[in-house]
Write a structure and sequence with these properties.
binds zinc ion; binds fe (iii) ion; TIM Barrel; eight-stranded parallel beta barrel; two-stranded antiparallel sheet
């Protein structure tokens, strides 16, 4: 059985997300730690966390994935921007201890005017400031499409960041199928080859989660426009093959496909589960 879920809204709390996950037959979910456009995180509600824990246990939800807001740029050379990233990440990691041992995912950042090497140094520097030995969270860097000056389009860039992190045993990677496809990794024609490359450059032991998305654009487009599963250039067969791959099938999978209601996710989860049996 594959461990699959989707992105849910945190607005009504953790217990509500667990109920929504259960209603669509999901065994995991992703959520933004705060409004993705930035802003303050809601205060943690103890009763909500307690209710969440019992629902999660009952439903077999073991791992959940928090996503940092899009507005932070940990690569920024501008003090004010870097300070905002530092504050948001530090607060988020402290709050993550309410649900210990979970995953936290971040877009590495954008170079904006700097070389990739400079941006890599800044990102690693930021992580060396925010990661603490007492944190139980695994911190993930997401593979990026390479839109604009995004860092993390290549496995080499992610490896260069990880290499510079002191507490690197706490750091892993979240592979986004739409992003790697847009970045030029052919997961349709040569999934084994892409995984071999990942293993050689980053190490497959670092791979902790997969964002399962189709792409509106062809291989290497560097656009980052997600499509529903089976309605894009990657296609149902290739995405199902990702969930069934012997090196990946134990990982948690997260749909970030465009749907207005939970029904769209329920349908994708049912089809992907059926194909994985
Ligand atoms: Fe993301
Ligand atoms: Fe993603
Ligand atoms: Zn994306």
């Amino acid at each position: 059985m594959i461990n699959i879920g989707c992105h849910l809204s945190v607005a009504k709390g953790f217990a509500n997300m667990a109920r929504e996950a259960i209603s669509i037959d999901a065994t995991t979910f992703q959520f933004f730690t705060r409004n993705p456009r930035g802003g303050k995180a809601k205060a943690i509600d103890e009763a909500d966390i307690t209710a969440f824990r019992s629902l999660a246990k009952e439903a077999g939800i073991e791992v959940i994935l928090a996503h940092a807001p899009y507005t932070i740029n940990p690569a920024s050379p501008v003090d004010k921007t870097a300070d905002f990233a530092f504050t948001a990440l530090s607060e988020d990691l402290a709050r993550m201890e309410n649900t210990p041992g979970q995953l936290y995912n971040m877009h590495p950042g954008s170079a904006v005017g700097q070389s990739v090497d400079e941006a890599v140094e800044r990102i690693a520097g930021m992580l060396n400031r925010v990661l603490r030995p007492e944190h139980s969270t695994t911190f993930l860097l997401e593979t990026m499409a390479g839109k604009g000056t995004e860092v993390g389009r290549t496995f080499e860039e992610l490896a260069a960041i990880i290499e510079r992190i002191e507490l690197s045993e706490k750091v892993g990677v979240c592979l986004d199928t739409c992003h790697v496809w847009d970045a030029g990794y052919d997961i349709v024609g040569n999934l084994d080859g892409v995984l071999e490359e990942f293993d050689r450059i980053i190490g497959l032991s670092r791979l902790k989660a997969v964002h399962l998305n189709d792409s509106k654009n062809p291989l290497g487009a560097r656009k980052d426009r997600h499509a529903p599963i089976g309605e894009g250039c990657i296609g149902f067969k290739a995405l199902s093959a990702v969930t069934c791959h012997p090196l990946l099938r134990k990982l948690p999978f997260y749909l970030e496909t465009p749907h207005d209601t939970l029904d769209g996710y329920a349908d994708e989860i049912a089809r992907l589960k059926a194909a994985s049996e």
